[in-house]
Design goal:
3 strands, DUF2087, DUF2087 domain-containing protein
């Protein structure tokens, strides 16, 4: 019969040794195999060896869903916090990135120009919030008054092919 291997890790070997020394001193005679396993498990933060086994025998977490190639190509324009780090050269990629920026803006608000600039700056990291604001207005994601003093979000319907990218960006922003 093959043996099941259970990985053992302790972040502080000094406290591990201290815990083992104390547990060993509490024994009247040298501990047996199972007692040593229990000591090691307790020193690593488990209740006993069965608890350690149960933790390692759990089925692994579900694999993350593979991201499609087009979404991966779009995600390279965003950092790990979901901020746009560069303006794409391709028009189609610009539009897709604008969907992600539009989705990140707060809903149900009307802003003056400094407030909308601040909201957009929080979603981009390359320093051109004016370009993004103008593109959001011209593309139909955002409305503004003729004198450019008030801005508000419009509610266009996101294309189905944007769903995966929007979900990935939302996940990055939430983390």
């Amino acid at each position: 019969m093959s043996r099941t291997h259970y990985p053992f890790y302790s972040s502080d070997i000094s406290s591990l040794a201290r815990s083992l020394k104390q547990q060993w001193a509490d024994q009247a005679q040298p501990p047996g195999h199972l007692q040593i396993l229990n000591m090691l498990a307790r020193a690593a933060g488990f209740q006993n060896f069965q608890h350690l086994r149960a933790e390692h025998d759990r089925p692994p977490a579900a694999e993350p869903v593979a991201v499609t190639a087009p979404t991966q190509r779009l995600l390279r324009h965003f950092d790990e916090r979901g901020r746009l780090i560069r303006w794409p050269k391709k028009f189609s990629e610009q539009r897709a990135c604008l969907w992600a920026l539009w989705a990140g803006l707060p809903r149900g608000e009307e802003w003056d120009e400094p407030a909308v600039n601040l909201a957009i700056r929080a979603l981009e990291a390359f320093g051109d919030h004016v370009l993004i604001r103008r593109e959001l207005v011209e593309g139909g994601w955002m409305g503004r008054t003729d004198d450019c003093r008030r801005y508000w979000l419009l509610a266009p319907e996101a294309p189905a092919e944007m769903a995966e990218m929007l979900a990935q960006i939302a996940q990055r922003r939430a983390a």
